[in-house]
Amino acid sequence: MRKMGRKIRKILRTRYKKPKTNKLKTSKRYGLSREEGKMKIEEELLKGERIEKILTPHPLSFMGLQALWIFIAVFGIILWWTANYSQYTSFLESWFTVLLLWWIGIIIAGVVASLVAIRWRFFFLYVIIASLGTFLAWRLNYLVDGKGASFFILVYSLLVSIIMFIGVYVFVKSHRYVLTDCRIIFRGGVLKKRERTLRYDKITDVDGTQGILGQIFDFGTIIPITQSGFGLGSDQTFAAGGVKGGGKRFGIFGLAGGAKEVKTPRARTYYELHGVYPYKEVRKLLEELIQGHVITPYQREQVELQREQLELQKEMKELLERQKELKD
């Protein structure tokens, strides 16, 4: 009897064991605490909605932003080494020469970064960094000779690079994409939070891109394009100050410039699936979810027939009501 009782208890435990919910699995997988992950997911979900996947951008997908602080650190180290240990030490004995070379390098890098990204903010960011560095060097009395100026530029460049690295890291971590069985939720932003919800039946096309690093590490960007044309548009902004423009051409004092006037899928990183991985698996899942919400020709015919039946029922009801009124 005891053996039979133990067997029955064992069967009941295995049969009525509480299943692990998809919410907890998802939160554990992406490094969140159980309570925090559960609260965040529950805030996003609608009644009866199920999570298919939670995605975050791959760190290497933001190499454009990472390159900004990498250049400042590397250029500061090279300038310091050149002023102290290279054959050009005698040429860089004056603090003015060292500071001038640093300014020239920062300005050129700012212009190149802005022309590549077509965002003028990178140029002005570099100008602010150089201006603040020059002011601090003068204030702290480092503008005495070339070695003192190069040492200050080295320390200042490393500190600025660390601050920029932290800023980029926080910005990358602020992005989160939730794929459910009926919609996509995009979320991102640090100081200003942005959120977009997109239902699968509104998606008409899917654009995907993979760079060299993306092909190596299996990440890429997927832009769902809607019927309203969200994600398609022209990008026309200038990269630097002292500009003149007319139509499609922009230039810096007539020497250099850039613009984009092309109908191409383009969206902010918090309005697209930016740098998601594994890329092929995510794209296949998205295509399947979209396909599941596409109405086939047969389904359309059925919907139209149901509408016609409803209209006929309404007309019959009206006729019966009139007949009753006439009888009365």
Q: What does this molecule look like?
A:
With 328 residues, this protein is of the alpha+beta class. Among the domains are: 61-172; 199-232 and 265-320, no CATH class. Helix content is 54%, strand content 16%. The protein has a four-stranded antiparallel beta sheet with strand order 1-2-3-4. A three-stranded antiparallel beta sheet has the order 5-6-11, covered by helices on one side. A hairpin with a 5-residue loop joins β3 and β4. α4 (63-85) packs antiparallel against α7 and α5 runs antiparallel to α6. The longest helix has 31 residues, at 297-327. Residues 15-34, 236-250 and 252-256 have low confidence and may be disordered.
Summarize this entry quickly.
This protein has helices at residues 2-15, 22-29, 34-44, 63-85, 95-117, 121-139, 146-173, 212-217, 279-292, 297-327, and strands at 51-55, 176-180, 183-188, 194-199, 203-209, 220-226, 232-233, 243-246, 249-252, 264-265, 273-276. By secondary structure, the chain is of the alpha+beta class.
User: Which structural class do you get from the secondary structure elements?
Assistant: alpha+beta
Q: What's the pLDDT, averaged over the residues? A: 78
Count, helices: 10
β-strand number = 11
Please write the string of helix (H) and strand (E) elements.
Answer: HHHEHHHHEEEEHEEEEEEHH
User: Biggest sheet: strands side by side, in what order?
Assistant: 1-2-3-4
End-to-end distance, in Å? 78 Å
Largest sheet: 4 strands, antiparallel
Q: Calculate Rg over CA atoms.
A: 30 Å
Shape summary: elongated
Low-pLDDT runs: 15-34, 236-250, 252-256
